[in-house]
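Give me the fold.
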Amino acid sequence: MKTMMKRQRFSVQKGIGLVEILVALLILAIGVLGYAGLQLAALKGAEEANNRSQATLIGQDALERIESNRAEVATYLDPDSWPNATVNPGGDPETGCQANDCTSEQMATLDIDQLAWLAGNQLPNGRVRVSQCNGNTMSCVVVSWGKMAPADCLTADGINVDESATCVVLEVSR
């Protein structure tokens, strides 16, 4: 009987215990959660980069439209010419008159409507505005999205460079 007790006491464990498995699963779960967090951060960064790219393209489009209709620069720079609210996404852009049939004033109005439609459809809560930069002789094309209004993108000191700013400002000197 003594020999049998000794054998039971000194027997070698075969396999893995439940505690070891649970610890390994816990470590694996923490790693998977960390990876999921990185994926979410990467997706958010990609979305922000896409929004900035779209906003830059809309701003560039605005500049090209202004350059092609220099007779109406004052209309483009008038803050009252631009919509104050976000254009509801969907639908078709304003077509109005055709380029050959438009006066320069009608073309400026059509450009503003189309740019506002582009901002509202390409960006979440997107808005666009062209105005004089604060205290400068330069013009600013401001495209904002999210919770920011175009007016929030320009400060008394110049351009809002806060990390949370969701806008693109293109300064133009003529």
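Residues 98 and 107 are 9 Å apart (CA to CA).
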